[in-house]
Protein 1
Amino acid sequence: MNEETRENLIDMSVNLGGLKMQNPVAVASGTFGYGREYQDFIDISRIGAVIVKGTTLEERCGNPAPRIYETPAGMLNAIGLENPGIDVFLNVYLPSLIEDRVTVIANIAGNTVDEYALLSRKIDKHPGIAGIELNISCPNVKQGGMQFGTDPDLVKQVVEAVKSETSLPVIPKLSPNVTDIVSIARAARDGGADALSMINTLMGMAVDIDRRKPVLGNIFGGLSGPAIKPVALRMIYQVYKEVDLPILGGGGILNTRDALEFIMAGASAVSIGTGNFVNPVVAEEIALGLEKYVTEQGLTGINELVGAAVL
Amino acid sequence: MPLAEKGTVISNHQTGRDLWEMEFLAPGIAAESKPGQFVNVRLGDYSDPLLRRPLSLYDVEPDAGRITLLYKIVGRGTQLLSRYGSGQLIDVMGPLGLGFDLVQNRRVILIGGGVGIAPLLFLTRELVARHNEVIVLHGTGSSDELCSQGRFSKLGVEYKVATMDGSSGYKGLLTDMMKEALEPLPTDYIYTCGPEPMMSAVAAYASQHGISGQLSLEEHMACGVGACLGCARKLKETDTAYVKICKDGPVFPLDAVQLSTGGS
């Protein structure tokens, strides 16, 4: 087969539990604002999916400063879900994303199970959103957030409540701050999740030795970046083996090689988070890099590589 | 419109104690830049240090496509920056943030503390072009941290220095020199950049005398474009409303944001 015919047969699109992406690369919630922040640097319609900033029912002001701190090969953040609330997101930020033909995944966070349900109902009524990522793993808010993601019963409850309000694909984002990630993933599946997003940040902290105080205003923050990549890969590998759901995998991905590791460990698609800060066009570069790899390997699509390294 | 560009380093050398100047060619960014804006610089292809470093535009010559940065070595990031040599490529995003409002036909005072002088040089160039009478006050710990005199002199403005140890110019606090410098003639506008306790004193003085002006904040950032919400700062007289230093600033009105008043 010559090169041209083969390229025509290559399919880089991904179906993530009913959520269709033109390529396997998404940008992670909280690292890409509402897309517009990066529009000067990258054609956001070429990104597989834009997972917008975590949205709550009411406006949230976020945590006191400092909110971020660089650590070895990573960073801590404790933003505290600063956002203008679901109605402002739907009415002010979403329309331009729809106009630009961006595949938008909403990310929602509630203080209660009912809030998750209400947020989903509002989104379901509003055309233009491709799927809902459930933030049940934010380490930086006092109520809700991670407490939902660390208890299998609550995970199941939240997912069930959301599924009953929407026909959109529902993708819980799992917290790595648990003893047994597989039991959490199973609970999400039992609640009716269509796919899993993993992993959120690892809880950490830093100390300012001059002030003899924690660096972050919130004391604790979420660790992200290349530092957490091995942890993310391990958890995705474990869940891929045990739970039959597509995985949106991420954690410190900076380049195509990193993305391939995640796919071979079991991720059907990947998400870029902290990497966007380092290189604003990294999502597009990785999408092209993956296509090149698939072509060079003589494969027909990225799907052939999912879980390829799982023994 | 900001862009990402691979700049070519022309020169990079030490000009004072821990102070370095880097010149590079980045015509796209230079053409768009305004005083008070910044660039976010990646330090090679490393994953450690991971994040870009936000740096003020010290001087910009759009016709030559040339940008100059003045930076102080404070950690690993700036140390790596100092190792760039002539001809090397440097990954730069910019210009980012909102710059200074440029007044016209006024008498303006620019007050820079330490390396906070950096954004005030490009500002001076543009203010002079707008027929302002510009006086620059620069304070440092000692004379070996003064390296900008030649550049300001070339622009034909009055440039006064204060050093804590008296090794050059006025001996003592920049803010004390400021009061003496500001007394004789009316001042229309103040621009300042430097340690926050200093800017806080400047803002208090300006408020007492009914002088308006702007300040420029420095902060650790991740994205630099308003996406990560990491560089939040509280607005004055509120306990809840934050602005993003990278996108809503780094320039703010003197009385707009809460400043740290102790330590630096």
Note: The interface with chain A takes residues 1-4, 42, 47-52, 93, 220-234, 240-242, 247 of chain B (CB under 8 Å).
Protein 2
Amino acid sequence: MTAGLKFYAGYPITPSSEIFEYLAMKLPERGGTVIQFEDEIASINAVIGASWGGVKAMTATSGPGFSLMVEGLSLAIMTETPLVIAYVMRAGPSTGIATKSGQYDVMQVRWAAHGNYELVVYAPWSVQELYDLTINSFNVSETLRVPVILLSDATLAHIWERVVLKDPNEALVINRKKPKVSKELYKPFEPEEDLVPPMASFGEGYRVMVESLTHDERGYYKATTEIQRKLVWRLINKVRKNMHMLVDSASYFVEDADYVIVSYGSTARSAYGLVKELRSRGVKVGLYRPKLLWPVDEESLIKSTRNAKKVFVVENNAGVYVNEVSRVLRHKEVFSIPVIDVEIPPPESIYEVMKEWM
Amino acid sequence: MDVTHPLDPYLRTDRLPHLWCPGCGIGIAISSLLRAINKHIMEGHLKQDDIAAVSGIGCTARATLYLNFDSAHVIHGRAIPFATGLKLVKPNLKVIVIGGDGDLAAIGGNHLLHAARRNMDLTVIMVNNMIYGMTGGQVAPTTPTGVYTTTTPLGNYEYSINVVKFISTLNANYVARASVTHPHILEKYIYTALSKEGFSLVEVISPCPELFGRHIGYKDPVELFNKLKSLIRFEEKPQIEKSDIIWGNEIIIGEFINDNKKSFLRIIGRGV
């Protein structure tokens, strides 16, 4: 709401429903609309429609619900529709344990939608970061005209912490670019130098053509290699070439570290506890925590592990993001420390696996 | 722009010719829609820039590519949710959903149901050609029992859906069935549907000689058109109980529901 949210559409699913319930109370007071749909498919498509109506829009969901949303996510990518999805991970596969935590869906968020694209995903580790990165997610989605996913989990959804809220006037709030040319000359998919096209809304007289098919700058369907290449590469490059405004990570004690743990989201809290404990015992260990999960911030990952002899990737799943870390740090020894725990994995259970390799 | 036809201002004429087959009824459905819109505009009820056209995927859904309004051609079955989100944040727009029977009543059936349940302020034009056209003539939930299609080579053995009957059980303010064989009635119903608050649905019976007619002995467009025309029966006060479509029997057209229940936007206190 600080970022200017005006539309929320959703379908109840644990552990994300609190977001829905809170907004159902608060958003109408601020002139916004909240509606419960028949399923997650309708929810994401309504969010896309609302965004084209000119407002900031979002939904929240969890595993099975996100599975239903990916078709719409692909549409949002193709039509360059700004929106935010709060994805609160729970234990899967399938219904799994709806009330319990896990980080199983890190690859799903990146790859589930059909087609080729880059996607922006943030992974907060605290309530404060949930707040800050939500504002940031809206800013990124509005700036690049991309869907942005805020990936948290049941642990973070249920935690109570102190949080400093910003006054809307002191928060940095970015709104989408509007057309600068006349209605006759405007093309809804004609990019500027940053590869992002200014966005006209419905009802402003621009006669926009929102097209799910491969389209040219007017939004006209074209089934040629030339247009397909041009469009797909622009959708990818508008994210890649604007990485500088997306990157966000934190490093702790990495300068002299022999061992660096890579961990993200709620699990990084445990990893941080372990690092501090090991440091007090004189072990030179550090922590690198990407807040931007996708695209991978290779530069800060390389920098933070520069002096490390070994890198451990700690995740509350069967070990998935480790493949990305191994890819980036291909000349280093990278170990997967998958700790499946329905709560936040305790530092001891991480250390138990890690010590084998230290 | 050179205006060669009175309805040209409502078309992206640079995109013509359209992709519909010779003998297809969708052209009549869309020209009826445009005449109804034009009438509203001439009478001062509507402005061209206050109209939004939303469609999913299918032959009928291609209409939005040619319409000179703010338009969205989205994914299969999801036109209604997109349109709902748009209407909720831009209540002053007249949001029209255009789609086929497969798009709206099969994959999008759940959204159709719930939009009608909410009495959501949308006008839905559903062209029913009783077949999947764009994908090559597969059976649709609207395909009458017994009809041959590419996925029912021994004849369709399923019961079909009667969308008029189904939607009439919900809270829609307007439910009508028309046919492209009777365009004056079709235009009148779309005109009425556009003047309604809340949910309005016009089912448009339309011939597909290429993929529906072909397998049942009506490959010739004129023959199929004439056959369909002979089956259509207009009723001033049609009965929902008699509205089922059984191929070979009379197909009843008429206004089944014409109500003025409080619409969704009225209920939530937004101007319409």
Note: The CA atoms of residues 82 and 145 of chain A lie 5 Å apart.
Protein 3
Amino acid sequence: MTDLSTNSTLETTQPGEAQFGDYFALLKPRVMTLVVFTALVGLLAAPVPVHPFIGFCAILFIAVGGGASGALNMWWDADIDQVMKRTAKRPIPAGRVEPGEALGLGLALSAFSCVFLGLATNWLAGGLLAFTIFFYVVIYTMWLKRSTPQNIVIGGAAGAFPPMIGWAAATGSVGIEAVLMFCLTFMWTPPHFWALALFMRSDYDDAGVPMLTVTHGRRSTRVHILVYTVLLAALAIGTGFTSIGGPVYLAVAVVLNGLFLKGAWEIFRRDEDASEADNFKTEKAFFKLSLLYLFAHFGAILLEAGLARFGLGGWA
Amino acid sequence: MSISKQHDLHKRRFGRNVGVGLLLVSFIVIVFGMTMVKVTGGDISGALQGDRGEQDGG
């Protein structure tokens, strides 16, 4: 997942005097939209009906948990956020929020969200949310991000958990359908993020983050994008034949994976001169398409689940 | 004698305090709502009607 948010409206605020919006920005609201949407799909695609208010609370607590991990990520990464153009205006590097405040907010919201998700639904869901926060903050942010170029691949698991948590909140268990939704987001993350790394080229170099573009070179990154996109396409289209798929999902998956593969192939074929000549037009288009790709796939899963209530969805 | 002049700082803090206040009210509403759903097994209107029925029946 990526967070491209900047907070330009608060630039005039004096250092150390945070406004409510600054604390909200710590929760990475743009990332939260993806978390909310995929968790909602997991919850609604589950075969067990959930009371609407409990469902609302479950999504809210999952979102708060995701936001808490974002705050803890910003606390730990304040030093590299300061170096990267994309993140320099975040509340901590901009001096509007103290690092300790972000740490306190992140820890408090983590505990709150996990406990209340457990109380509202079940402790499997609460435990999965706690593990997700731990994975994102400790495994990805503190460990992998600065130590291996595979940071995005393994760290992407953190962003893949929300639909599984939504499913667990509804059913109290983790089924194969939840694992498929997890895998879809997990396999989608590397090509999505590496495309970003290709056109935000100096940011990661300056910050010393061992992105694939820095450690293995940009040619290797283009190869990696293509390989992961092929694997993702196989998984995404294959999911169409499972219980969460159906004709609508399959049609969406075939079209979007065709476009995604075309984009990955074009990225693979290009060299740096061609990319610089058109200011990374293809890479940027691929990145934008990747956002639509994930939302459309999960939207189609949701639609299939909705149609199933009227006896229309799926293959049955 | 006025204690202090209204400063821009107070305006900013007012906004922050309002935000925290709204969050606390939302928290109360959520806890109350969750309690009602859990206690009534999701059938809040049915539970309320049952209460009325008991009261009517003495």
Note: Chain B has a mean pLDDT of 79.
Protein 4
Amino acid sequence: MSKPLPLTDLDLWVHPNSKRQKDQALSLLSRLHIVTITAPSREEPQVVSLTKNFRSALQLALTGGGDHQSFGVPSSDVVEDVDLGLLDDYARTQWEGILHYVVNSVGDGMRHDSGGPTEAVKDLLQAGNLVTKGRHANSGITQAGFSFLLQEVNAQVWTLLLLWIENAEKMEMDNVDVLSFLFMLGSLELGRAYNTTTLTESQQRMLGHLVDFGLVYIPPSTSTQFFPTRLATTLTSDASALRSVSAGFDAATSAATGTKGFIIIETNYRLYAYTSSPLQIAVLSLFTKLSTRYPNMVAGRVTRDSIRQAISQGITSDQIISYLSTHAHPQLLKASAAQGGGPVLPPTVVDQIRLWQIENERMKATPGFLFRDFENQKEYEGCSRYADEIGVLIWKNDAKRMFFVTRHEQLRDYIKSRKVK
Amino acid sequence: MPRAIRGVLVECDPSIKSIIVKIDSEEHAYIVEELDDQTLVIKENMMSMLKARLEDALKETQQPADDSGSD
């Protein structure tokens, strides 16, 4: 699309019933600065066009021109003994090291390894408020850290990378550079060697950090090559791929822990976890009252207090439930399959965990803007309908002529344009 | 000309709302606008204060549920 497109033409493409979806899509695209919509005026009709940078970059990418190296430069040298197993192993050790460091701050010193993440990673976790340096020599975990632990691996990776991007400037890197490097990384192929010599100097520095995260592996013998690990290649995959990919990663991690699912939870809220991994036990102890520990399992109960405590630390009931069901023991899965694909967890427990959360959440808070003092009914109706169409309206009262929206920029423009007319 | 006011929309039970109104009646530092039985707008910077006050108020009125049971 090289020429601007009049909005009225665009309206013709869209089924009248889907106007709402069209407006939401347009609003999103312009927030992302992918399209620009000209301000409404009396002389010229409104037109929509792709922003200049996006258009040229898109054309370049589609035609495969330019030397932007968006997809990395594979190394032609044959490398000895770097296989998928080694990469998965490496990624897992690095990543678990980071998780252990975060958990360690709560885990009653269940594990005091000399290993763990490098200083740079520790600083990053602190900058992102996942852990805080307490008064004691040991550091403490924060709310954000708790929810970080319960996320899926892929989400965890992204959380950490976003922190990294935010703090890039402190480490004397340009965050645009970092971002483009990450997207490049996401398009690389697992188990393939890539050249480091074609990278710019700042990218080489980034590579060092990514090695710390376990996203990239550099064989000790040849420093001119790097291998993306599974963590890196799944960065930009879409939602459906994500599931199977994270399953792949789970399979990789399960080598260390024995079985994939290990949690049995009964209708009387008792919980048995067949694991000896300090990481998993520490995560469980965030929301369970653990009572007994055996060499290969821990037993405990999910109680109102333990859930309350978890929720006060910022963990949601949905996070807990999804953690329990993704790590459910094969026996629970078998039982649910026997009932023709019923729920994996006992419904009473799931409901009760939700109820415990609702008990604490007595109000639902949404930051935003209250619009009031409309001059007449017509103006009010127009504005509230527009707010609804772009998907920002969350509350309205026709009698009082007030409504509440989450964002006000576009609405402000809209009100101004009404004034013009 | 319509006005836009920054704030936090709070949706809750009527009972909770009346507690919030009671807390606010002491110094009028929290509520921007009462909208209806279940919704009101709160000043953005006072939200965490209000949450703490509400928690305290509820602690006084509620009996903790019995949570015994053997392991």
Note: The longest helix of chain A spans residues 84-104.
